[in-house]
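> call design_seq(struct)
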C-alpha cells in the first residue's frame, strides 16, 4: 500500500521526497533558531548572531505567509471554477427558455 502525503497548509499532494524534504527543513530550521538564540545570548550578545536570529525569524514568517497566500489562491481558484460552472448552467437555462442575453 502506497502512502500519500499532503501539505497541511495547501493540501497539495507531496511525493515521498518532498515530504522528507519538508521534515528535514523543519528540523534544520528549529535547530538553527535554537543555536542562534544560544549564541546570541552567550557568545556575542547584540552582535552578528542577533542579526542572524532576526533574519531567521523574518524568513520563517515570510515563508509561512507565502503558504497562507497559496491556500487563499487555491480557494479563489476553486470559487472561480464553481462560478464558471454556474454561469454555464445559467446560460443553458436562458437558451432553453429563449431569453436573449444583454
Amino acid at each position: 500500500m502506497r502512502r500519500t502525503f499532503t501539505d497541511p497548509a495547501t493540501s497539495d499532494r507531496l511525493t515521498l521526497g518532498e515530504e522528507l524534504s519538508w521534515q528535514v527543513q523543519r528540523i534544520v530550521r528549529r535547530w538553527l533558531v535554537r543555536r542562534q538564540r544560544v549564541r546570541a545570548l552567550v557568545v556575542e550578545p547584540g552582535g552578528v548572531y542577533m542579526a542572524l536570529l532576526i533574519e531567521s525569524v523574518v524568513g520563517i514568517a515570510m515563508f509561512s505567509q507565502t503558504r497562507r497566500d497559496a491556500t487563499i489562491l487555491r480557494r479563489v481558484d476553486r470559487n472561480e471554477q464553481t462560478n464558471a460552472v454556474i454561469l454555464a448552467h445559467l446560460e443553458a437555462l436562458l437558451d432553453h427558455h429563449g431569453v436573449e442575453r444583454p
